[in-house]
DNA sequence: CGTCTGACAATGA
DNA sequence: GTCATTGCCAGAC
């Protein structure tokens, strides 16, 4: 595992219950600004039984970036934490969202 | 080494 | 508010 991945994991564990963070913001926190796309790639390699809150990571538009079964999985996980998700993936209750 | 790809982001119409 | 365009950069080929 490289340093980038390590740092992403570490910072991801700090995202609290019921909140979300954007790919770009997570990359920035991890010390790698402008690496938003690489964050998605890294998260896609996580095992299904991971304890990391990967589902709290969404696009800067507050929208789920996944599709198909993965979209469903993330949507359900977020709804369990009190968030409301529209069919197109847009998260409606922005009060608890970490952005910027 | 050149190109392409992607769980993205910022900007402008 | 929604697209479309452009910039971005590590990996995969």
Topology (elements, then pairings):
Layout (H helix, E strand, L loop, with lengths): L2 H10 L8 E2 H7 L6 H9 L12 E2 L9 H13 L20
Parallel strand pairs: 1-2
The structure holds a DNA duplex (13 and 13 nucleotides).
Question: What attributes does this structure have?
Answer:
100 residues; mainly alpha; Arc Repressor Mutant, subunit A; two-stranded parallel ribbon; 4 helices; 2 strands; DNA-binding
> The CATH topology is what?
Arc Repressor Mutant, subunit A
Mean pLDDT: 90
For the record, the count of structural domains works out to 1
Helix tally? 4
CATH superfamily: Winged helix-like DNA-binding domain superfamily/Winged helix DNA-binding domain
From N to C, what is the helix and strand string? HEHHEH
Classify the secondary structure makeup into a structural class.
mainly alpha
Report the count of strand segments.
2
Which term fits the overall shape?
A: globular
| Uncertain spans | none
How much helix is in the residues? Answer: 25-40%
């Amino acid at each position: 595992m490289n340093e980038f991945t390590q740092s992403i994991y570490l910072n991801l564990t700090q995202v609290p219950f019921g909140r979300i963070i954007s790919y770009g913001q997570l990359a920035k926190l991890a010390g790698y600004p402008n690496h938003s796309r690489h964050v998605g790639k890294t998260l896609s390699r996580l095992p299904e039984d991971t304890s990391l809150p990967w589902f709290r990571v969404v696009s800067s538009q507050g929208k789920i970036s996944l599709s198909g079964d993965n979209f469903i999985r993330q949507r359900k996980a977020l709804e369990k934490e009190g968030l409301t998700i529209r069919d197109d993936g847009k998260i409606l209750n922005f009060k608890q969202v970490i952005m910027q």
